[in-house]
Write a structure and sequence with these properties.
This protein is an all-alpha fold and 239 residues long. The protein has two domains: 134 residues, no CATH class; 77 residues, no CATH class. The chain has twelve helices and no strands. GO terms for molecular function: RNA binding; translation activator activity. This is MIF4G domain-containing protein. One of its GO terms (cellular component) is cytosol.
C-alpha cells in the first residue's frame, strides 16, 4: 500500500467510530505506517521490516470489523473498506479475522434468524458485499459462505418459512456477485441453479415462488434486473 492508501484506510477505519476497540485499531494503523517507513529504507536496513507487520492486531481488527458490520450496521461501508485493505501488509491476517467471525455468526444462524432477524439480514448482505469487494479468497472460504447461505435458505425446513427480506437479500446478492460467481466458480454456480430450480418447485407460498423464479431468471439475463421486473416481482409479492 502507498502512503496515500494507508491514510485513506486509516480515515475510513476511524470514521466507523467503533467503540471499545479504538486503541486496537490505532495500534494497527501505527503498525502499517511503521511497515511503510521501513520498506522505504535501503535494502540492507530492511531486516526488521517484518516485525512491524502486526498480524495479531490485524486478525483482531478483522473480527471487530465483521461484528460492527453485522451488529452496528453499515456492512457495505465495512466491506468496501476491507476491499481497500487487500494490499495491506497484514491483509491475510485481517482476512482470517473476518472469516473467523463470519464463521461464528453462520454457526449461530438458527438463533440469529429466530431472535435477531435484523442482524441476520445484515449478515446475509455483508457476506455478499464482502465477496464483491475482496473476492472469494485464496482458500475459497468466503465464496463457500456465499453458497452456504443459499443452501441454508433454499432447502427444507427453512424454505417454507422464508421471509421476503431473506429472498430480497438473495436477489441482491446475485445482482451484485452473480457475474463473478459465474466466472470464478461455474461448477458451484451450476449446482446453485439446480438448487434454485428445486426450491421453485418445492416452495408452497405463491409470493415466494415468484421471487425464486426471479433468482432463476437473473442467470439468463446477465445478472441484471429488467426494469419491468420491479413491478411484477416486488410490488405484487403480497398478492
Amino acid at each position: 500500500m502507498t502512503e496515500r492508501e494507508i491514510l485513506d484506510a486509516a480515515a475510513g477505519l476511524r470514521a466507523l467510530r467503533i467503540g471499545g476497540n479504538t486503541t486496537e485499531i490505532e495500534d494497527w494503523i501505527a503498525s502499517m505506517n511503521c511497515y511503510l517507513i521501513s520498506s522505504q529504507l535501503p535494502k540492507r536496513n530492511r531486516k526488521f521490516a517484518g516485525a512491524f507487520v502486526a498480524d495479531d492486531l490485524a486478525e483482531s481488527v478483522g473480527s471487530t470489523l465483521c461484528q460492527h458490520a453485522i451488529e452496528g450496521g453499515g456492512g457495505r461501508v465495512v466491506a468496501k473498506l476491507c476491499g481497500s485493505l487487500r494490499d495491506a501488509p497484514s491483509a491475510y491476517a485481517l482476512y482470517k479475522g473476518l472469516m473467523s467471525s463470519v464463521s461464528q455468526y453462520f454457526e449461530c444462524r438458527d438463533r440469529l434468524r429466530a431472535d435477531h432477524f435484523r442482524m441476520w439480514i445484515s449478515f446475509l448482505s455483508f457476506v455478499a458485499d464482502l465477496y464483491a469487494n475482496i473476492g472469494g479468497g485464496k482458500d475459497g472460504e468466503l465464496v463457500n459462505f456465499v453458497f452456504q447461505v443459499f443452501d441454508y435458505l433454499l432447502r427444507a425446513p427453512i424454505l417454507e418459512t422464508l421471509k421476503i427480506e431473506e429472498l430480497e437479500s438473495l436477489i441482491s446478492a446475485l445482482l451484485s456477485v452473480g457475474y463473478d460467481l459465474e466466472r470464478e466458480c461455474p461448477d458451484q454456480l451450476s449446482l446453485l441453479k439446480d438448487l434454485i430450480r428445486d426450491a421453485f418447485i418445492d416452495v408452497s407460498e405463491p409470493w415466494a415462488r415468484k421471487m425464486i423464479l426471479l433468482l432463476l431468471e437473473l442467470g439468463a439475463s446477465g445478472w441484471k434486473l429488467p426494469a419491468e421486473a420491479n413491478e411484477y416481482y416486488f410490488q405484487q409479492t403480497t398478492n
